[in-house]
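Researcher:
Attend to C-alpha cell order:
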Amino acid sequence: MSEGTVTSADGTTIAYTAWGAGDPIVIIDGATAYRATNPLNRETAELLAGEFLVINYDRRGRGESGDTLPYAVEREFEDLAAIIEQAGQGRPATVFGWSSGGNLALNAAHHGGPITRVAVFEPNAAVDDARPPLPGDYVERLDAAIADGRPGDAVALFMTAAVMLPDEAVAGMREMDFWAGLEAVAPTIAYDGRQVGDALAGRPLRPGLWKNIDVPVLVMYGADTWPALAAGSRAIAAHLPASTLEPVPGEEHSTTADVLAAALRAFIKEN
C-alpha cells in the first residue's frame, strides 16, 4: 500500500491510497464519504491487489484533498483524469463508483475521460414514483445553507431529501458525535447534487444523457436493498444499451468487499 497526492488541472491537490500493481481500478465514493470513513474500499482493494492497481482517492473538499472554488462538475472529471494519469501511471482505468459517485463515473466517461470500463453500485436515478424526486431547488438550498454558515442544515436536507430519512430520525442524528464530521464535508454535498443533475427528477432520463459512453458498463444493486434504489439502478441500466445489470448480495445501499471484488474481477475479465 502507498499513499500520495496528485495535482488536478486547476491546481487542487487530490490525496489517494493505492494497493497492488497492474491495470488500474479507481474507486469513487458517493456523497459525504472519503477514505477515512469508508473502510470497505480498503477491504475491496486488498482483495484485488494481487491482480490490479487499486486506487481510492478523497474527492475534492473531503478528507486530505484540497478544494478550489468555484466548483463545476468538470473539475471532478479533471480530478479523476489526474488520478489515472499520475497515480495510475497513465493507463486507462476501470472506474467504480458508489451511489452518486457512480453518476460521477458515468459523467466522466460521457465526457471522454481515460476510462476503459465503468462499474457502478446503486447510482442515483428516479424516473417514476418509486421514490420522491429531489426538490427542484435542492442544490440552491444546499448552497444557501453553506453560504449562511449552516452546514448542519445542508446535511439535514441531504438526509431527508436525498437519503429519504424521516425528519425525526435526522433530528436525533444531529445530537450524535458523527454529525460534526458530516458538517465538515457539507460544502461538497452540493457537488454530488450537481453530478446527479436531473437523474432524480422523477421523470424518464433525458435521451442524450450519457449518449457518448462507448465502454462497457456494469450496473449493480443489492439484492435486498431498498426498492427505490433497485429501481434507480434498473432505470440507468435500461438507459445504457451496452450495460449489464447485476443484482448482487447486499442490502441498505451497500454490499461486502468479497462480493464487490468478485464482481469487479469478473467484469474486467469478461470485457
Residues 73-87 form the longest helix (15 residues). The longest strand covers residues 13-20. The radius of gyration is 17 Å.
